[in-house]
Amino acid sequence: MTQKETEALIRLLDDPDKAVYKAVKKKIMAEGANILPDLTKAWQDAKASGNGSGLLMSRFEKIVPLLQNNLVVAQIEQWKSHPDDLRQIAWLVSRLDNFALERQVFDSDFNNLKILLPQYEISNFTPLEQVRMFNNIFFNKLRFKPAGTNDFYNPHNCIPFKVMTNKVGNPVSLALIYMMLAVETGMPIYGVNLPKNFILAYAGDANSVDFYINPMTMGAVFEKPEIDRFLRDDLKQKPERQFYAPCDIITIIKRLLCRLELSYRTKNDTQKSDVALKAYNTLGEPLNKVIDWE
Asked: At what angle do helices 171-184 and 103-114 cross, to 10 degrees?
């Protein structure tokens, strides 16, 4: 589509004829990300000038976020083929909340946290010493903390960028930021797909866990019998390997998006819950619905 054709199409958004609008919207949605910059600029210009009709502005407000969300969902799906960049996926999930968030802003905030991490050769310390030193930085100096019960389903507690800035997260998001920072120090920290309370594992060998870490209890360290007891007594859940072994990054993001979708749904924000569910579904097979992951 030429620039003139794009501009003409955008002008037609102001047409009061519903049939015309339906055809224009269909064409715009088909153009997708290609038309988004021009459409966004036209919306911003109309807001700045105050010349846009109420009809035009309402149509901008419906179509632009829809295109933005579709673009981010597509980028999340692309990330799935190379799921080793934690910063990339943390930024993309954050854009589901704020499309305007630039990657360099996300990286700058993350690097400001990273500056305060201990600069040491981890081989000089035992795994337990490493985690204790890191916990002191993460919880005492950086002041990260778990969300309270009254704020557990606040969607912002699922958004990595918001967790970084507000220093408050739920079991999955807090574990994700903890892991992202810990990995930067060279510690072998992995996620563990435990129902109800996502946790972390220190595993010098990915097939052999040294011990587990619970970010929701200020980084408390524990071992396998605690998981056994939790599954047996609290959840009445039969043990499965995934409840003990390090999981892949895609599983972590599935858990995060699952909780984000539920948080939006709890707040009756159906539009955003639908987008979170769409992003979740792009990551392959869903989590086992028989298990209560929340």
From this structure: 70
